[in-house]
Amino acid sequence: MLLVIDVGNTNIVLGVYDGDKLKYDWRIATQKDRTSDEYGLVFDQIFQYHCICKKEIKAIIISSVVPTLMHTLPSMCQRYFSIDPLIVGETIDPGINVLLDNPKEVGADRVVNAVAGYEKYGGPLIIVDSGTAITLDVVSENGDYLGGVITPGIKISSEALFLRTAKLPKVEIIKPDTVIGKNTIESIQAGIVNGFVGLVDHLIELIITEMGLSADDVKLVATGGFSQILTQDSKYITIIDKLITLDGLRMIYERNL
């Protein structure tokens, strides 16, 4: 079986594949100061709870946007699984052309999403990933990664509002019943949720126009922790695929056997 690990700024998402079938997936908090042994014990607990024998894991692939963990997690894999993991962005070929000024700048998760998105849905394609940041990644009809957009995410924007004001509270990120809030909490929720839906839809419109296409020509896929909130009132996004990054890691591993 294959263990895939996607390291984000907020969460680490991991999954176990048996062939092309995802058998298990989990989400744990990203903690940059954890040691390789501490992560090893976390993985041990997860595997023991689900009665998975670590010896069944024959390979591991990692993508990460957290440089400080790119010694910790490979060391954990070597010590606790006796496996040297493949690392996206080092020497392995993702199987997609990255048409940026400096291809090494692009986050590994964005390349992985593009690989899986094109394989699963075809192109042209826009993938909206709503995590710590919101990214919109654009893939051409021929499967080339063209670039995209990065904007602050819902959670960090909400937290910034709380931290940088004297009286505004931290709120749960849910959509209120009305846009016109009847209290402070509803007003913040209305602004955050509806504002980001409008932001994403507007960026989609600009991208589609710049590509010389119409909305009907482009596949729109959402992923990430806040994808449900962003898509419930979106004019364009109809597909939610929360496991697209894990699928992309499996595909990249298979291309580098």
Key traits:
alpha/beta, 35% helix, 257 residues, single chain, 5-stranded mixed sheet, 2 domains, Nucleotidyltransferase, domain 5, 7 helices
Count of separate DSSP helical elements: 7
Judging by the overall fold, what is the CATH architecture of the largest domain? Answer: 2-Layer Sandwich
Main sheet?
A: 5 strands, mixed
Residue-averaged pLDDT: 94
First-last Cα distance: 14 Å
Radius of gyration: 19 Å
How many E strands? 10
Structurally, the number of domains stands at 2
> In CATH, what is the homologous superfamily of the largest domain?
ATPase, nucleotide binding domain
Shape: globular
The helix content is 25-40%
Q: How are strands sequenced across the largest beta sheet? A: 3-2-1-4-5
DSSP strand (E) fraction? 15-25%
- CATH fold-level assignment of the largest domain: Nucleotidyltransferase, domain 5
Uncertain residue ranges: none
Structural classification: alpha/beta
CATH class of the largest domain: Alpha Beta
